[in-house]
Amino acid sequence: MDDVTEQRGGWALAGALSGLAGLAVSYLVTHIVGGDEAPVAAVAEQVIRLTPGGVAERAIRTVGHADKPLLVTGVVVAVTVLSAVIGYVARRISAEPWVPAAAYAVLAALGLAAVLVQPPPRVPGVIGVVCGYGAWVLVFLLLTRPLRPPVDEASRRQFLLRTGLVAGGAVVAAYAGRVVGRRRREVEAARRMLSLTGVTQPRLDPADDLGVPHQPPWLTPVADFYRIDTAIVPPAVAPADWRLRIHGMVDHPIELTFDDLLSRQVTENWMTLNCVSNTVGGDLIGNAWWSGVRIAPLLAEAGVHPEADGVLQTSADGWTCLTPIEVLTDDRDAMLAVAQNGEPLTVEHGFPVRMVVPGLYGYVSATKWVVDLEVTRFDKAQGYWTDKGWSARGPVKLASRIDVPRGGADVGHGEVTVAGTAWQQHTGVRAVEISVDGGAWRPARLAAVPGVDTWVQWRTTVTLDGGDHQVRVRATSATGEVQTSARAEPAPDGATGWHTVKFHVS
Ligand SMILES: Nc1nc2c(c(=O)[nH]1)N[C@H]1C(S)=C(S)[C@@H](COP(=O)(O)O)O[C@H]1N2
Ligand SMILES: [Mo]
């Protein structure tokens, strides 16, 4: 066998592969020993935290606030490339195995540091980094020690030993993957067994949905509901293990089990949820039938101190947001939701319990896998995204969107249907108007909606000649506010501007 591993390129490849193997093992081991976050994710967090304000803000502006998966990818790529460079350089300066091992130790130490500055539990991450480092060096050594054809007995034994080790490693990794998935499977099984008394199926009023072909339905199926969170692996929380603590500036702290929660009065309502990162015309929005327990009576029971003005919500994976106390205690249906569209929440959307609050963007209100509510003050605490430059308060802005025709569509001439949605949750939409080719505003017909907490569909028809056309839309809220044409980016508190669609009539 002409040995590729003798070449520097071979060493670079071995470096890259061993780096990836190390990361994979650190990820698996961390989860096996009960951690929720891979060391890579901890490094990504520190990158976000330590980048100078301006850079972080620009990044947030370009990738919205779903920046963590992107950063994690970046960290994985960086480690792989560095690992390849180390392999290449190591071959140039010496064939001693401790040279790359020492260089990898420096990278692993950075990972360890990132894990150690994270909030507890830190032990799983530490074990993950140590095992990942071990795998990294081991795989590198395995790949760079030249293999000769098994001519004599000794080298044949060596060859068998090495392939055996690699195969064994693969089996261990596969088994580890199964173990990691087990908790999730158990939680999925518990979810299927749940029967939620008081939870009913959504009953769609035909008047809610205008039924325009190619328009997203008024009721968003759970499978199509947008998902935004910082979790690389969504936390698997069994209902039997779930606890909610309500504490902080209250007279009587409360701790609830899942059964305690379900023994309360169940409230159900329609509510549209949207993300502050949504761009004009974007689809980070969905409408669902939510069932759960109103938070206001629970806070009343706890006895909120008069100086308190916010509730810091924390999820099972340590995500936080700070919600103004008035939206949790007024008469709106801010609730600890257990079901979406008549079914228990899916794991991705917060099983077993999440908060939903009509009228606020998700990043300041809609904590999935919620486990802790601390009554506090805005001058004492802040949530995950506020800490990264997003606005402390996030009431939803009046917005509207054109769904039909799609941008760039080619439609037949004559009567052209224009349709879409408009929303400002907990305020309501009174009117929607469109303007074709910069002409006068003309009213669209609105669907009926059950309340002010959902989006509303609208439609109209226009007669158009062949050629290129452009249509834009603006809404008027129930309080008479006309949607602003001023363009604003999502950061720091939500995009504004009129959605405009260009299409062709033939
Ligand atoms: N635990 C947790 N809850 C979270 C988030 C998160 O990152 N972690 N993201 C929030 C944001 S920014 C939004 S827009 C909504 C999205 O909810 P969905 O994924 O169910 O659509 O969840 C909110 N709740
Ligand atoms: Mo969001």
Mind explaining what this structure looks like?
The protein is α+β, with helices and mostly antiparallel strands and 506 residues long. It folds into three domains: 178 residues, no CATH class; 183 residues, Sulfite Oxidase, Chain A, domain 2; 107 residues, Immunoglobulin-like (Sandwich). Helices cover 35% and strands 22% of the residues. The strands form four sheets. Strands 2-1-10-5-6 form a five-stranded mixed sheet. Strands 3, 4, 7, 8 and 9 form a five-stranded antiparallel sheet that branches. A hairpin with a 4-residue loop joins strand 5 and strand 6. Helix 2 packs across helix 4 and helix 5 packs antiparallel against helix 6. It is globular, with a radius of gyration of 27 Å. The N terminus is likely disordered. It binds the ligand Nc1nc2c(c(=O)[nH]1)N[C@H]1C(S)=C(S)[C@@H](COP(=O)(O)O)O[C@H]1N2 and molybdenum atom.
